[in-house]
Amino acid sequence: MFEGRVLALDLASVTGWAYGPPGANPQCGHLRFGKPGTSRAAIYRTFRQWLDDTWGKRDEIPDMIVYESPAVPSLMSGKTNIDTTRMLMGLSEHLEEWAYGKTELSEATVSQVRCHFLGSNMKAKIAKPLTLERCLDYGWMCETTDEADAAALWDYTCCWLNPQLAFRTTPLFRKLK
Questions:
Q1: Cβ neighbours of residue 60 under 8 Å, at least 6 residues apart?
Q2: pTM of the model
Q3: Would you say residue 167 has pLDDT above 80?
Q4: Which residue ranges form the domains of the chain, and what is each CATH number?
């Protein structure tokens, strides 16, 4: 049974994060690495500084970091561009380099997380508000859909690491309104 701390990152120019041990309620937050129009290099530098300052200076860094796999442009049906794709790939590459030799690193796709957390891989327009609502139902202090996406990723990973926790977010045991 995994008893460490998991950090989940929904990497983007506004990155959501969720942190904590499996079975607990995650701490959640989000931050913007740059205003619209900020260069990728500046976003990468701000991201690396945040990793160093927030996670690298703790007594113990997370035992596992999981991040959302960057979307493949051909699957996005024209809803992304090369600059966004390069930024997302760059953030994940910088994370991989930063974590190398420090902690275990994993990734999951949006569809894996949504199927786990919502029961199916819905379109973002539907999934994002539902994910936030579900997080709030669980008592998780998420303020934005970026934070909620990270919390859903965190839950997916915690349940993958400790399958006995999976009942908490399965439809049978979900809180009814």
A1: 5
A2: 0.89
A3: no
A4: 6-173 (3.30.420.10)
What mean pLDDT comes out for the span 108-116?
A: 94
* DSSP codes, the chain: ---S-EEEEE-SSEEEEEEE-TTSPPEEEEEESS-TT--HHHHHHHHHHHIIIIIITSSS--SEEEEEPPPPGGGTTTSS-HHHHHHHHHHHHHHHHHHTTTSEEEEE-HHHHHHHHHSS---HHHHHHHHHHHHHHTT----SHHHHHHHHHHHHHHHHHSGGGGGGGSGGGSPP-
User: What integer pLDDT is reported at residue 97 of this predicted model?
Assistant: 96
What residue has token string 């909620």? Answer: 148
pLDDT 10s digits, 64-81: 999 999 876 545 455 567
